[in-house]
Every structure is written in structure tokens, then in C-alpha cells.
Automatic annotation (TrEMBL):
GO terms for molecular function: ATP binding; protein kinase activity. It comes from Actinocrispum wychmicini. PROSITE patterns: PROTEIN_KINASE_DOM. InterPro entries: ABC1_dom, ADCK3_dom, Atypical_kinase_ADCK, Kinase-like_dom_sf, Prot_kinase_dom. Pfam families: ABC1 (PF03109). SUPFAM superfamilies: Protein kinase-like (PK-like) (SSF56112). This is Putative unusual protein kinase regulating ubiquinone biosynthesis (AarF/ABC1/UbiB family). Gene3D superfamilies: Transferase(Phosphotransferase) domain 1. Belongs to the protein kinase superfamily. ADCK protein kinase family. It comes from the Bacteria. Keywords: ATP-binding, Kinase, Nucleotide-binding, Transferase, Ubiquinone.
């Protein structure tokens, strides 16, 4: 992992320069008569390709940000969705590995010089990569197959450097994902980084969730075998990655996986007191017995009392079209800043489309539906854009909102049809009248 701030900044700085060059080239092509829509699609595709190539090379905070951004792929206009999707899939599943020597050095530092004695077998070839580490397949000394996550040397320096630099280029990312607030996303990722860098926090989180779902017929959370600040050993699980189901899955499979994803995100706070806060396809897979396996608990929202009841009331009031109660609850929870002069009816109109999935027994989550929401809230000349700018996102709802938006993005990638209302009724406090 390139550690030096100068080197990493230079790579990140190449992004807006590359975009600027393509804009100039695009103007030239239009002047000589090429179709404007085709030129724009070409520019967008090349921008997405360059963006995620650079983020993937840098790993660290850059790759972490790219993974967080990936769930909004469904909001990207159709003309550039295919290359964007391909670039994101690569980012979710692959990145240049660290050297074998560096991996062994980290294992010795974290597990002791005799670390090999803990394993019957250990594969030096990484099986997968993550934003701040890579995963090796191994056999523990008692014969269990395990996944060994090893943190990249210099990950801590690289993470904070990346996130500081990325905030300077937030407008570039805004172009790619209209209607998504990039700066708050970066701020939230930065705030969580100190916990994610210490794998002992992740191990504690995963132990709690694994215990809560132990023996569950629908979900599998791998058990933790051993942990250190920069090495994590857990049970190995084979399964079908969510990305392949999004790409090739039959409708029945996509609907089932969408149902399981929504069920997990809504039920985990009630069952385990935690909300999995890193919803991108690389963290979910379907195992042979039909259960959904969930991994990577470095980022969670601690919710010992479950999801907040006011959120359920907000959903209900928005569904019922009760502008006054909706506005009063938003103000009480801090969504409406003191002194803000925004009509209650405008707020209801802004939020109503977001609860559309709860108005029918089943709802079909599609890319087009998510694109419409992104276009609506991102239209600089529209009332919804002005209303959105008048509202605030309270800190206690930041992770919840990101998970809700992220998991909805995955449902739209899956093109899944499911009874969202039934899931919310069972697990969201305050929703039922």
C-alpha cells in the first residue's frame, strides 16, 4: 500500500485532471457533429473506469469510499451503468495484493513469531481483498477451515490521508451519482476509521451478531476463531457472491436474496443490538443450504434498544400523508434545523416517494425507480432539491440512513420484488399504529 501522502495525493489528483481532459475532448467531438448523448456516455464510462481503477490501486480509504459509493450504482443513468457496474464489481472483489513477505511479517507481529504453528496449512495466495486488508485461506490447528484477514501495512496512514484528499474532489463524485450527498458520506467514513483499523473491535462485533444468529435457518455469521489488532481469523464459508446473483441470477433467486437482505438489516438491531453498516455486495453471499452469509462487521451502528421508534413513526406519517405529524416528529428528532422556514407540505412531498415500497403488499425495486429518486432530489431547479437542502441529518441517524439507502441500492441492483412492508411491520418499532 503506497504510504506517502505525496504519492497518494498525486494519484487522487489525476482524477479531476483526467475528467477535465475528457470534457475538453467531448466539446471537440460535439463541434464536429458527434451525437451529444453518445459523447456524454463515452465520457462518463471512461471517468468511472479511471475513478475506480485509481481507488482500487490505492486501497485504504480510497477503496473504502469506492465500496461505499458502489451501492448507489443503481442510481446511475442507464447509458453509463454497464461500465460503471463493471468497474465497481472489480473494486468490490479485487485489488493488487501485498507481497508474501509483508503478509508474513504482519502475521508474525500480530500472532507471534511461531504463528505458523497455529495453522496446519496456510495459503500465501490471497483469496480475496478488502479495503484495508486481504484474506487468506488456511486450516486452523484443529482442522477447521478458516479465513485469515491481514491488514495492509500502513493502512492507518493511508486511510486518513485518502479521506482528507477525497473530500477535495467531492464534486467529481457528485457528477457520477446525482442526488447522493458525498461530503457527509466521507465525514462518516472518517469518523468510523479508528474502530475499523483495530480488528479486535470487528471481532467483538462479529461474536455478538454470530451468537444472536447462531443456528438460524436463514442467516449464517461466521464465528471468530482468533483476533489481534491487525489480524482476524474466522470460520471459512464458501458461497455464491451477491455480485454474481445480481449479474446472472434468475428472478426467483434475486427475489429471495433481496428478501433475506432486507430481513437481516431490519432484524439485526432487535436481535443483536447492532446494525451492519457496510452494505455493499462483497459482504454477502448465498451458501449451498440457502442461507445468507454476512461478513465484515468492522463498521456497525450500536443500537442496544433496536431501531429508533421515531423512525417508524416518520415512515407511517409519510405513508399516511400526515404533513403536520411528520413535520413535528422531524423537528423533534433534529431533522428540521431551528429557525428553518420550510413548509410542512413540501417536506411531506419530498419524503413521500421514499416510502413508496411500503404502500403495497409487494414492491418491485428497480434501477429506474432509484434513478427517478436520484434525479428528483438532485434536480437543482426543483422544489425537492430546495426542500432537501433545508433539512438536517442528525448524527444518531447518519449510519442508519446510509444503511437504508445502501441496502435499497442493492435491492434495486437485484431487481428484486419483495414484501417490504411486512418486514418493516415486524421489525421497525413505531411503524404500527
Amino acid at each position: 500500500m503506497p504510504r506517502k501522502t505525496v504519492a497518494r495525493t498525486a494519484r487522487l489528483a489525476s482524477l479531476p485532471l483526467g475528467v477535465a481532459g475528457r470534457v475538453v475532448g467531448g466539446w471537440g467531438k460535439r463541434l464536429v457533429g458527434q451525437d451529444a448523448a453518445e459523447v456524454n456516455a463515452q465520457m462518463s464510462a471512461k471517468t468511472a473506469e479511471q475513478l475506480f481503477a485509481v481507488l482500487g490501486q490505492l486501497k485504504g480509504g480510497a477503496m473504502k469510499f469506492g465500496q461505499a459509493l458502489s451501492v448507489f450504482e443503481a442510481a446511475v443513468p442507464d447509458e453509463m451503468a454497464a461500465p460503471y457496474r463493471e468497474a465497481l464489481t472489480k473494486l468490490q472483489t479485487a485489488a493488487p495484493p501485498m507481497s508474501t513477505r509483508a503478509a508474513h511479517r504482519m502475521l508474525a507481529e500480530q500472532l507471534g513469531r511461531s504463528w505458523r504453528s497455529r495453522f496446519r496449512e496456510f495459503s500465501d495466495e490471497p483469496a480475496a481483498s478488502a479495503s484495508i486488508g486481504q484474506v487468506h485461506r488456511a486450516i486452523w490447528h484443529d482442522g477447521r477451515e478458516v479465513a485469515v484477514k491481514v491488514q495492509y501495512p500502513g493502512a492507518d496512514e493511508a486511510l486518513l490521508s485518502d479521506l482528507r484528499q477525497l473530500s477535495r474532489f467531492s464534486r467529481l463524485f457528485q457528477m457520477l451519482v446525482p442526488g447522493t450527498e458525498i461530503k457527509p458520506l466521507l465525514a462518516e467514513l472518517t469518523a468510523r476509521m479508528s474502530e475499523e483499523l483495530d480488528y479486535r473491535h470487528e471481532a467483538d462485533n462479529q461474536r455478538t451478531v454470530a451468537a444472536a444468529f447462531d443456528g438460524d435457518e436463514h442467516f449464517l455469521v461466521p464465528k471468530i476463531i482468533a483476533s489481534a489488532p491487525k489480524v482476524l481469523v474466522s470460520e471459512w464459508v464458501d458461497g455464491m457472491p451477491l455480485a454474481s446473483i445480481i449479474r446472472d441470477g434468475e428472478k426467483e433467486l434475486r427475489d429471495r436474496v433481496g428478501y433475506l437482505l432486507a430481513e437481516f438489516h431490519y432484524s439485526a438491531p432487535a436481535r443483536a443490538g447492532m446494525l451492519h453498516a457496510d452494505p455493499h455486495p462483497g459482504n454477502f453471499m448465498l451458501v449451498a443450504d440457502g442461507r445468507m452469509c454476512v461478513i465484515d462487521f468492522g463498521g456497525v451502528a450500536k443500537l442496544p434498544d433496536g431501531l429508533p421508534a421515531p423512525l417508524g413513526r416518520l415512515m407511517r406519517f409519510a405513508m399516511e400523508g400526515d404533513s403536520e405529524k411528520l413535520f413535528e416528529t422531524l423537528r423533534a428528532e433534529g431533522f428540521v434545523p431551528p429557525g428553518a422556514k420550510v413548509p410542512a407540505e413540501h417536506v411531506r412531498a419530498y419524503l413521500a416517494p421514499f416510502v413508496e415500497p411500503l404502500l403495497s403488499e409487494k414492491f418491485h425495486f428497480t434501477r429506474r425507480w432509484m434513478q427517478k429518486q436520484a434525479e428528483r432530489v438532485g434536480d437543482l431547479g426543483g422544489q425537492d432539491f430546495r426542500t432537501g437542502r433545508s433539512l438536517n441529518l442528525p448524527p444518531q441517524y447518519l449510519l442508519i440512513q446510509r444503511v437504508l439507502a445502501g441496502s435499497t441500492g442493492i435491492l434495486c441492483q437485484l431487481d428484486a420484488e419483495l414484501p417490504a412492508k411486512e418486514i418493516v411491520e415486524r421489525w421497525q418499532p413505531g411503524f404500527a399504529a
